[in-house]
Amino acid sequence: MAGGGGGGGGLMMAHPAGNAVGRAGAPQPPPQASSTHGGAPPPSAAFLGADLLDKQQSISLKQVKHTAHLPIVAVDLYAGEPHVAMYPPKPEDPSIGTPPVLVGKMKADVAFQSTETAQKTLRKWLAKQKTYTSLQTDALAKNDDAAAVLIKKPQQWLGLRRLEDAPEFVRSRVTTELATPAISQETSLDVGTTMANSTLDGSQPTGDDFDRVVCNVRIHSSKKVLTVLPEEATQILLNQAQHHVATKSNLGDDEDEIADCPMAVAIPAYASHDAAVEALYDATGSSGVFFQRSVCALSGALLPGPEGKPNKLLERLNEVRTAMHKEFQREQAKNPGATFEDEILLILLGMTDEGFECTAVQVSTLQPSNLCCLYGDFKVLSTVSYQAENPLTKIRQCSTELEAAIDQLAPEADGPGGLVIYGSKAEQVSIAAKWNAIKLKQKEWADVPVFNTNPDCVAIGTAILGAVSHGRLSVLVDAGAKKKAALGIRVQNVAPAAVGVQINYFGGAAEKWEPVKVIFDFDRRIPAGPYAIDLKAADCVISRSGISTTPDEAFEKAYKEVQGAKGIPRREEAALNLKIQVVQKWARDGEWINVGDPMEPLVKLEGDVGEEEKRVACESVSLKLSLGVSGMIATRLDGEL
User: Fold this and answer.
1) What is the dihedral of CA 133, 137, 143, 144, to 10 degrees?
2) Class of the CATH domain delimited by 293-470
């Protein structure tokens, strides 16, 4: 076996101090059969972006310097009709603040002309032989064109490995094909699109992390089917948004410069899981920044209204804050050492065509010097979301679970200062009507004032948060005798999905998987980790025998028996059979979904180039998991060679 003799103690899961994100790489397809030891693999570009946002909610000046002259493109991607906003190039003084600009709305579907030229252009665009401008001119159609071939809402399918991973109602809205033999793609000459199970290389699905849901597109009956990944179709939507912004800002027609425009995207909580976010990074060329849709809505809702049209939500916050300050003055008279806490709880309700989300956020730190960031601190307490064919049916469940979560996580928090509704005008009317019908069920929230928002507030808020992350919006804070720049908005977020691991000591037999061990639960403050799972071959031997790893007489006796040279065969067998599966739960009442393929953490592959690799057992390794703000999971293995 490789490595030393392994120490005492059972299989241990221990929280390290702090919340620093480890230097880790997100899994990249095709997956490796085994993990190597002695250091982390090179991180993907996608995770590098996530890591930067996780640590400081901003990107280094060096990374954004070459795009500082370009507008930031902000998209409310999951809305029924996505709104597009922009934030202008970096101002000379980011602490003053420049308001974001609404660009307009776009369709959520991708529409193609049903011509041979369109088929040829799309094929070349997929092969990176044509630019988006060529695609726009020769292949894209208007959505209301009766002859157009549509890919409907490709963002719904981002990162899915199987059609069955999507809710039934989502599958029912499109044509699907559960089994897609390669030859069947050519048996029908019908023009149209079909969602199907496939793989990243177009081969047959085998149940591993290489599998993907794809869209098979036939634009013209005389041409072959083209396979389009959801992230490729989503990229077309995002490129369209970039070109809308380029036109609005008179950027010109330089294709490369338009493609370099930074992207900021709002993501609903139900879509903020590892697979979807990783695919969205691919759709943005690994340069996008992503934010919780509810937080984007709040950021946009707190922007002062145009002259002569007051913002009622800001007026309410000022009213609550004034009352809090009067209470503080009374307290200070009794206790001169008291400090003023200005956290105001807001409840946000929002929906898309596919889901509903309910979020609790405490806002604080009034910053009147920058009107784009009037409140500088957003502390998310909890977010509850569910997908549903009729999202309105989930309001009561979401609000009830959110209220219970607040009572548990922040029992000292004051009652909500307001309830904020966001979405299209029709969605807000429906949410308000439904809320009025059920609010008496929420005893503490029945009398909370309700505030509607502009339909574009999510896109506008996304532009603001994107500007903060790119150093275009800041505030000046005291730093001794000097002033220094700080992020215009500081967001403390929580996990909208849960992360766990499953362990199998017997080589992957289906019936031998241990129950899921939750590592990062819903509402866990993020970024989180690294969380270390220490794995030892000796402990695996004991677990295979059915003896508890809790230190006692039986454990000590069994542990002594597997030590030394005599125990090597048993330790080697146990190490070679150990498998660990990282899993994620996207909804509180949902199922655990595999993230990547099972890992073999106690196996090292050896062999020269051109030779068959040999699986070598290791004595011990530490698996470290981290969860980023955007929802991506990072892993790192540290062990002895």
Assistant:
1) 150
2) alpha beta
